Amino acid sequence: MGKFITPTCQDCPHRKGPLMGCCQLEELDFIAGNKISQSYQKGQRIFHEGSPALGLHCVSQGKIKVTKASGDGKEQIVRLAKDGDMLGFQSVLTETRYTTSAVALEDCVVCFIPRADFFRVWQSNVQFSTSLMQMMAKALGAAEVQMLHLAYKPVRERLAEALLLLYHTFREDDTLPFSMSVSREDLASLVGTAKETATRLLSDFKEAGIIATRGSQVTILKPNSLSEIASLYD
């Protein structure tokens, strides 16, 4: 990442998103005057599961994984986040502590909105609060689907689904094959399986010509084939 430049809410390319798009200009000015912008290196934690939920995090730039620790200490990726996404809003509204952790998948920039400022806008702007409730409902629905798939879908189908999730979340150019650096540990955590199993199944997909790999780089060549595999048990 180049020289860090503090992003401004008024000029943010994501200000028309489902949440900030509900804010009036004076509300954006208020948020911009109190928020804190910070750069994070790949692998650095943005917030920790169990720590006080002090505010809302808005991804200005970069890719992030949201994780939850299981009873045996293993990490499960429960969500992926990209530019313009909001993090931690469920915990800020319903809990006193974060129920998940957020970790940078690459160098990124995240803006932090203090809890009190977030609630000031939430209480005064009906559109903002309605949009937030819709975001929470969508997140809950996605979590229920993920839990169901972990319970009954075979690992091969879940890996295809995980690769499609990466594809649909982070793809920026529709004219080129989607390619991204992702560790085998992260893929296994996203699928809910062992690293060795994820690596073996990736090799199977590679031999079938569905993907290409080079080190940690994974290129999706045939997303339609992944869709067919992922939907076998739907």
From TrEMBL:
UniProt-listed InterPro entries: cNMP-bd_dom, cNMP-bd_dom_sf, Env_Response_Regulators, HTH_CRP, RmlC-like_jellyroll, Tscrpt_reg_HTH_Crp-type_CS, WH-like_DNA-bd_sf, WH_DNA-bd_sf
Keywords, ordered alphabetically: DNA-binding, Transcription, Transcription regulation
Residues annotated as transmembrane: none
Span of domain HTH crp-type: 153-224
Entries under Pfam families matching the protein: cNMP_binding (PF00027), HTH_Crp_2 (PF13545)
Domain Cyclic nucleotide-binding: 19-121
PANTHER family named in the record: CRP FAMILY TRANSCRIPTIONAL REGULATORY PROTEIN (PTHR24567), REGULATORY PROTEIN YEIL (PTHR24567:SF26)
Protein name: Crp/Fnr family transcriptional regulator
Organism: Hymenobacter mellowenesis
